[in-house]
Amino acid sequence: MKAIKYISIILILHGTLLKSQCLQDLEYGCDTIKTNNNLSNYTEYYKQKSFNDAYEPWKWLIENAPKRTKNLYLHGPKIVRAIIEKTENEVEREKLIDLLISIYDARNKHYPGKEGYVLALKGKDMYKYRSNNISDLNKCRLVLQESFQIDGLNSTATTINYYFNASLKLFQKEQLNKQDLMTLFSDVSEVVDYREASISQEIFQLTSDTTKTLSSKEQKALSKLESELNRIEKAKKSVNKNFETIITSCEQLVALYEGFNRFEIKQDWNKKTNKYDKTYIDFRSDDDSEKDLKWLNRTAEIFIKKDCVESEFYLAVVTLLHEMNPTPESAFKMGKRKYAKKKYSDAIIYFKEAFDKESFDNIKKSKYAYYTAAAYALVGNNSNARSYALKAANLRKNWGDPYILIGKLYAKTASQCGTDPASKKAGYWAAIEKFQLAKRIDKSCEKEANTQISQCNKRVPTKSVWRDNVTNPDSKSYKINCWYTETVKVKF
User: Fold this and answer.
1) N or C: which end of the chain has fewer CB within 10 A?
2) 406 and 371 in contact (C-beta within 8 Å)?
3) pTM, whole model, 2 decimals?
């Protein structure tokens, strides 16, 4: 009897141990055969888009073998959403929505590494299915906010769009104040601009070599990039359109900030002129320099986005920002103010400071170079304008604006770069080549480039004028030696 008792105890302990080991097998569960059968069934049904049939084997795998394959989390949301749309029973529908939202948490637990991206997908579904009341909307916003904080400048269009929309809804329900929404607009706008530039650059790197055939992997990457760029551009339009309904003028923007109680605008009275001759901010600090700088920077960004940089308020903000913590970006913002006021020589000083001090981010550095070039062009320093435009183009090789600027300079100075009726028009060929390059590398420049090409084509030398004035009229090329040197194709 004792022997039988001992054997029973051993068998119970062994069974408990096996059960414990089984529970720890997140890949195959307790039954390898059943796991693989369910995997095969759900996969086949999914391929056939028979989501009702795929649901049960998929759900069994999620509950019993959650690490069998990452596809469980890639396919799962689509399967569950299809079931939700066909479920009329409200109680069952809510259970399915709970399951849908839980899929993203499970994915981050079992397959970490893309937490921000996954939280964006979770927030999107929460916005769709769980945003009818303030409590659910707040939960949705917090998820999207976490995604935005994790991914920062690499946030997806999904994060940007739904984070702003959820915040806008809360603002409309008087759960967020206008300052909160404006802060978010500034943050989101910065990311949108950066993502547009960075994705465009990645696309250019994949497609710039026309002699190379893209591999299937590269084609897939290109398709994803193009889709994301399209989504980013749509998110940008949506965010800007919604924000325009809140702030309609620069006067309204200034008045709003004056009411935030973060500072007081002061002016010095000049007894000789009987006028106020200086405007500055008496800033009420949070006793936290990092928070103060963020607040000032966001404020400046909003004024730039709304094209309100001519206001004295903007000047006071960026001056204080640059004094507290001079950075490339604060120098650029000072330059924008000077540029808007047509003080181009002063703007050049700040733009060059931004360019010289930026050592990390080529996208930002290219922006600073371009504005330096634009300011140089407006003071008539064509050589420096061209030099900085080329620097901008080299730092961001898919950007057409620098070449548009150079082309306009060539066209503007064409008559100065020749000694006869023919050579005085050769500069238009040089301009056309730059406009053609701009639209070839940057589709966003196509309309402007075509307009400029059309105008220049009316001014290029005619064949008869060329033959009457040029020493070697049959040459296929012509070298322009002026404030720039270019060899252009002779084309009538």
Assistant:
1) N
2) no
3) 0.71
